Amino acid sequence: MKSFFSFLLILSTCLYFSQNKTEIYIIGNIHDSVPNYHPKILFSILEKVQPDIILHEVDSEGMKEYESDKSLKGNEITASNLYKAKFPKTLRFPFDFENRNQYRKDRGMVPTDNLAVKLIDSLYKAKKLSPSEVKIYENYLGTTEDLMKIAELSPENFNKPATDKISEKRQNAQYSELSKIVEARPEFAKRLVVKPNGEKISYKDGFKLMSGFWDLRNQTMAKNIYRISETYTGKKIVVLTGFLHRYYLIKELKRMNNGTYIIKEFYD
Questions:
Q1: pTM of the predicted model as reported, rounded to 2 decimal places
Q2: Contact assessment for residue 116 and residue 245, using Cβ atoms and an 8 Å cutoff
Q3: Residue-wise pLDDT tens for the chain (268 aa)?
Q4: How far, rounded to the nearest angstrom, does the alpha carbon of residue 231 sit from its chain's CA centroid?
Q5: 22-100+218-264 is classed in which CATH architecture?
Q6: Are 120 and 181 within 8 A, CB to CB?
Q7: CB atoms < 10 A from the CB of 135, how many?
């Protein structure tokens, strides 16, 4: 009989802690309204999940703008505003890398990253890339096209583990594989842009910095989500992010999880 009551105590304790774990929903988004994904669709998802907290892919200044500028029309803020109006007690926080846009500009990652990809494309079209470089670039184009097709479907489709794998493959193609072309060819070392402080930086060096920043930014965002989850235990937290970030955030949050939260899908 004593062992039976001990079993019941352990069972009730386990149920208590399982019921009080924080729930985190990483919802990958298309930022701008399109026929298959617009604010009303995202609002319906939020209504289904009923989060206590919504996290936005902006920094602190961006969050202030989100809350003060009523003219903003992006999917996330519009749906979030609708949800906040219906559930006024909902908390909202930023979770992005602080001052991310200026950080990239000051270090010359912007615009060198886009200029480097454009140069790769021009070399590809002019048939000046080597066979191995052509293979790298066509793989990048192919995975990008695969994701564009998925992005035309319902949100469940670009919030699936299978899509996360394609997103990871595509981002690795951009920030790891394309870097091999940028590092190897002299054109990228010779092309320069001027940073805000007047210093010059090559496409090669700027693209390398941006490749590293992809990891730094996502790891920082995941740490910010983790910190908020530790502060607000037992709550439902929805993370609104571009769907290309989803795989990285989920991977990092699973790595950091000490058993205090559960990562869930909005459609389960």
A1: 0.91
A2: no
A3: 555 444 444 444 444 444 589 999 999 999 999 999 999 999 999 999 999 999 999 999 999 998 888 888 899 999 999 999 999 999 999 999 999 999 999 999 999 999 999 999 999 999 999 999 999 999 999 999 999 999 999 999 999 999 999 999 999 999 999 999 999 999 999 999 999 999 999 999 999 999 999 999 999 999 999 999 999 999 999 999 999 999 999 999 999 999 999 999 999 9
A4: 21
A5: 3-Layer(aba) Sandwich (3.40)
A6: yes
A7: 12
